[in-house]
């Protein structure tokens, strides 16, 4: 994992790879993954289709819109697929290596290259490209005929989706260090929500002005690395509630209608949380899984059977929690108890994207570029 120190205008921007002693959660010296135990399925489920794109070396988001999913590989191939069948809707080429995954509103799709170029496609046809000053690892948000892009220095850019005209840019004073991992850029009604360090900020999407912000965590540590607590995407939207993990620090939920914190619980971890109106669930740095009550943050259950298996972000589908691991297995746990219900294989490569739900289909993506769709019963 990369942490990117940023100095303000006129100074130098560079990347520092942290040693395992500084950031154990991302270390290659982690204990070996806990072996999987035999499992007798208690629910039924099956793979219904799969597709191959290409190797993915960034944090892939898989947006779902109008019955379609949108994916991209590192080489620059961008695809729209039918969520129920995997049939290809359209295919496009960015013509460059990508640094961030796809954002889409169902018609327009946007990606970002390693040269900091924002590209927008309309049904596979390239409309425009615009450069931003800093590296981008968070998938763009396409909403309201605008494209919103957040770079690793936490600067937010807004573009007109039709012609690429830059509408506004928000740059606020920030910390010297920022996290090079996909963060929070999301829509809430007529508000744009973005992560600004450990704060959830609400912006006017027309002007880029700040409406409110909520501290989701209180970072502690003896140095700037230990105090890193950027909000990790994708955020979990549950009506007026927005929940997210602050990197290696906390899990929290806010009331987006009032701009108020509902609860925050100390919980280290590096992957996004999932949830429902009843529970919020996520894994910590050692892959201990914890479920909290959505309304209060009270701990409901824990599961330590999958330690060090490099679990993905979580998805809650009705009574089931779904996520992937380093060996490409997709796990299904009871949302009520955390007990394992089902385990299904993919291609043996790490599951790198938080699973998404498209109708009755759960879609996951692997590092090798495998897209797999499952239907649990």
Q: Short description, anyone?
A:
With 377 residues, this protein is mainly beta. It contains no helices and 35 strands. The chain has strands at 2-5, 16-17, 45-52, 64-65, 68-72, 77-82, 88-93, 98-104, 108-113, 117-122, 125-131, 141-143, 146-150, 156-160, 166-170, 177-179, 185-188, 191-196, 199-203, 210-215, 231-238, 241-246, 250-255, 260-266, 274-275, 279-283, 289-293, 299-303, 315-317, 320-324, 330-334, 340-344, 356-358, 361-365, 370-376.
Protein architecture, described:
Helices cover 0% and strands 47% of the residues. It is mainly beta and 377 residues long. The strands form nine sheets. The protein has a four-stranded antiparallel beta sheet with strand order 3-35-34-33, with no helix packed on it. It has a four-stranded antiparallel beta sheet with strand order 4-5-6-7, with no helix packed on it. Strand 21 and strand 22 form a beta hairpin. The chain starts with a strand and ends with a strand. The model is unreliable at 1-27 (pLDDT under 50).
Observed structural traits:
disordered N terminus, globular, mainly beta, four-stranded antiparallel sheet, 377 residues
Q: Quick one: how many beta strands?
A: 35
* Number of helical segments with 4 or more residues: 0
- Compute the average pLDDT: 90
**Beta-strand content bin:** over 45%
- Euclidean distance between termini CA atoms: 36 Å
Please estimate the helix content.
under 10%
Q: What Rg is obtained from the alpha carbons, in whole angstroms?
A: 19 Å
Strand order of the largest sheet: 3-35-34-33
Reported for the largest beta sheet, the result is: 4 strands, antiparallel
Shape: globular
Poorly predicted runs? 1-27
Alpha-beta content class: mainly beta
């Amino acid at each position: 994992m990369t942490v990117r120190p940023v100095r303000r205008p006129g100074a130098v921007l560079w990347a520092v790879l942290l040693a395992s002693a500084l950031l154990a959660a991302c270390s290659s010296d982690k204990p070996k993954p806990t072996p999987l135990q035999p499992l007798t399925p208690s629910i039924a489920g099956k793979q219904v289709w799969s597709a191959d794109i290409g190797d993915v070396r960034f944090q892939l988001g898989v947006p779902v819109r109008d019955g379609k999913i949108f994916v991209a590989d590192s080489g620059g191939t961008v695809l729209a697929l039918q969520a129920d069948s995997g049939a290809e809707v359209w295919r496009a080429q960015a013509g460059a290596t990508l640094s961030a995954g796809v954002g889409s509103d169902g018609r327009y799709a946007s990606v970002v290259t390693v040269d900091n170029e924002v590209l927008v496609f309309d049904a596979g046809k390239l409309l425009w490209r615009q450069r931003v000053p800093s590296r981008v690892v968070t998938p763009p948000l396409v909403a309201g005929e605008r494209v919103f892009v957040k770079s690793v220095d936490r600067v937010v850019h807004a573009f007109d989706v039709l012609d690429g005209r830059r509408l506004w840019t928000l740059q606020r004073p920030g910390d010297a260090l920022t996290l090079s991992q996909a963060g929070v850029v999301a829509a809430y009604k007529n508000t744009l929500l973005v992560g600004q360090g450990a704060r959830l900020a609400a912006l006017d999407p027309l002007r880029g002005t700040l409406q409110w912000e909520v501290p989701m965590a209180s970072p502690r540590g003896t140095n700037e690395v230990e105090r890193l607590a950027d909000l990790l995407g994708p955020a979990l939207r549950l009506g007026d509630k927005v929940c997210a993990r602050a990197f290696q620090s906390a899990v929290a939920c806010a009331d987006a209608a009032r701009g108020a914190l509902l609860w925050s619980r100390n919980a280290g971890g590096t992957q996004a949380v999932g949830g429902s109106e009843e529970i919020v669930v996520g894994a910590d740095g050692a892959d201990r899984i914890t479920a909290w009550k959505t309304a209060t943050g009270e701990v409901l259950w824990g599961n330590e059977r999958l330690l060090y298996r490099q679990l993905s972000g979580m998805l809650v589908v009705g009574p089931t929690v779904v996520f992937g691991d380093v060996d490409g297995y997709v796990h299904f746990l009871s949302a009520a108890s955390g007990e394992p219900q089902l385990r299904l294989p993919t291609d043996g490569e790490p599951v790198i994207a938080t699973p998404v739900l498209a109708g009755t289909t759960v879609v996951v993506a692997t590092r090798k570029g495998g897209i797999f769709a499952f239907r649990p019963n």
